[in-house]
User: Which sequence fits this backbone?
C-alpha cells in the first residue's frame, strides 16, 4: 500500500480536548497528558481524522475543498510528514483499510 | 485576633512551645520554632495574620528546630520539618526565616492539588488581577513590591492560586522576598515599606523580606478576576518593551510556569484555557523599574470598562 493510500485515525481511546483562538489551536491529548500547538492546517487535518479515518490522498482533497482560497495547498509529502509527527505524538494511529 | 496582637515575648514563648496557628491565604498553618532570632522576625513579618485557635486543624505543620548536641551551639544549624519529615539539609540557624519562607513555598507546590498553582506574582486593582509569571531572577518580585506600593493590592508574590471551579485568583499575601539590588531599589522607591532583616549569605545571595501590607492581609477572603497575564524579563540597562502575545503563546508559557499543570490533566487544560480566555497577554522586557510600572499602570487605565464592571459604577 502506498503512503498516500494508508489510512489514519484518531483512536477512539484518545479523547482530545480543543481550544481555538483565531487561527491558533491547542489540543490536549487526554491519554498522554501532553498539550500541542497546531496551526490552521494541522488542526483541520487532526479534526478530520477525529471525525473519521482517512488516507493522505483523501486529506489532501479535503483540505483543497475546505480551503479553496489557499494558493499553496499542502501536498502529499507535507501531509504525510504531518501524519508521521501526529503518529509519533500518539495523536493518530494507522486505521483499517 | 492577629498574631501581632501578642507581645514579641509571648509570641516567642508560644512559638518555642506548642507553636502558633495562622491563617495564611486559604491555608491554616501551624508553626513551631525554637530559634530566638526567627521568632522575632516571624512575629514582625506575619504580625497582621489571623491567629487561629490551637485546636484548629492545620494543612501544614511546620517546625524549625535546632539539633541537639554540639551543632546546637557550635556553628548552630536549624532544620525544617513538615510534620515529622525533614525534607531539606539544615541551614545555618541565622537563616531560619529564609528557610521558613522557602520551605513553606515547597509545602504548597508539593502538596496542594485542589488549586492550579502558577509560579507568579499577582496584584489586583479594581477587582482585576495582574499575573506576572516567570522563573526566578526575572524581576517579578521587584515589580510586585513596587506595584504594591503604588496602589495595587498584593495577592501573592510567589503563587497564582487559581480556583479550578470559578477561575478566580485566591489571595495568599505573604512577605515579598527581595534579593540583592532590589532591596535598595524598593527602599528608595517606597520609603514606607517595612522590611525584615537583611540576610547576607543565603544560597540566593542577599535576601530581605518585605512585610505584606495590612490591608492586603485583611482582604484574604477577597479573590480577584484574572485580567492581565504578563511575562516579565529584567535585563540591567535594557530598554522597556511591553508587547502583546497571542492567546496560544500565553497558554504555552503559562503552562510552563505552572507547578501542577500536568498532574491536573484535562481539568488543568480547561482551567488554564479559561484563565487565558479572560486575560490579555503581554511580554514585558524591562531595565527601568519606574517605566515598567507606568506601562503596567497603563494596562489598567486602558481597560476602564473592567473597573466599571468591578465597582458597579
Assistant:
Amino acid at each position: 500500500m502506498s503512503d498516500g493510500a494508508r489510512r489514519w485515525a484518531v483512536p477512539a481511546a484518545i479523547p482530545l480536548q480543543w481550544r481555538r483562538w483565531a487561527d491558533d489551536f491547542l489540543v490536549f491529548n487526554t491519554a498522554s497528558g501532553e498539550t500541542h500547538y497546531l496551526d490552521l492546517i494541522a488542526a483541520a487535518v487532526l479534526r478530520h481524522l477525529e471525525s473519521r479515518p482517512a488516507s493522505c490522498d483523501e486529506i489532501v482533497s479535503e483540505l483543497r475543498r475546505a480551503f479553496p482560497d489557499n494558493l499553496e495547498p499542502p501536498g502529499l509529502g507535507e501531509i504525510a510528514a504531518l501524519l508521521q509527527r501526529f503518529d509519533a505524538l500518539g495523536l493518530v494511529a494507522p486505521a483499517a483499510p | 485576633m492577629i498574631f501581632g496582637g501578642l507581645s514579641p515575648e509571648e509570641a516567642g514563648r508560644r512559638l518555642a512551645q506548642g507553636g502558633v496557628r495562622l491563617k495564611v491565604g486559604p491555608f491554616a498553618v501551624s508553626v513551631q520554632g525554637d530559634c530566638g532570632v526567627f521568632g522575632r522576625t516571624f512575629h514582625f513579618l506575619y504580625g497582621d495574620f489571623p491567629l487561629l485557635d490551637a485546636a484548629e486543624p492545620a494543612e501544614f505543620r511546620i517546625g524549625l528546630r535546632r539539633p541537639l548536641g554540639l551543632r546546637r551551639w557550635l556553628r548552630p544549624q536549624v532544620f525544617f520539618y513538615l510534620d515529622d519529615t525533614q525534607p531539606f539539609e539544615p541551614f545555618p540557624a541565622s537563616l531560619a526565616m529564609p528557610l521558613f519562607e522557602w520551605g513553606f513555598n515547597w509545602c504548597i507546590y508539593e502538596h496542594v492539588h485542589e488549586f492550579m498553582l502558577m509560579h507568579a506574582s499577582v496584584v489586583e486593582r479594581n477587582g482585576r488581577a495582574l499575573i506576572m509569571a516567570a522563573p526566578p531572577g526575572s524581576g517579578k518580585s521587584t515589580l510586585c513590591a513596587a506595584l504594591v506600593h503604588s496602589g495595587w493590592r498584593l495577592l501573592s508574590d510567589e503563587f497564582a492560586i487559581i480556583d479550578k471551579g470559578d477561575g478566580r485568583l485566591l489571595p495568599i499575601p505573604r512577605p515579598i522576598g527581595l534579593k540583592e539590588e532590589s532591596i535598595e531599589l524598593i527602599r528608595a522607591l517606597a520609603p514606607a515599606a517595612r522590611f525584615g532583616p537583611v540576610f547576607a549569605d543565603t544560597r540566593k545571595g542577599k535576601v530581605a523580606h518585605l512585610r505584606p501590607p495590612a490591608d492586603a492581609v485583611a482582604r484574604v477572603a477577597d479573590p480577584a478576576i484574572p485580567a492581565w497575564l504578563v511575562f516579565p524579563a529584567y535585563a540591567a540597562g535594557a530598554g522597556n518593551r511591553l508587547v502583546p502575545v497571542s492567546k496560544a503563546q500565553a497558554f504555552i508559557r503559562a503552562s510552563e510556569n505552572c507547578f501542577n499543570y500536568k498532574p491536573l490533566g484535562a481539568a488543568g487544560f480547561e482551567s488554564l484555557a479559561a484563565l487565558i480566555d479572560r486575560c490579555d497577554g503581554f511580554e514585558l522586557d524591562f531595565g527601568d523599574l519606574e517605566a515598567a510600572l507606568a506601562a503596567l499602570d497603563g494596562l489598567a487605565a486602558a481597560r476602564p470598562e473592567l473597573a466599571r464592571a468591578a465597582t458597579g459604577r
In short: The interface with chain A takes residues 246-249, 251-252, 255, 262, 265-266, 269-270, 273, 276 of chain B (CB under 8 Å). The radius of gyration of chain B is 19 Å.
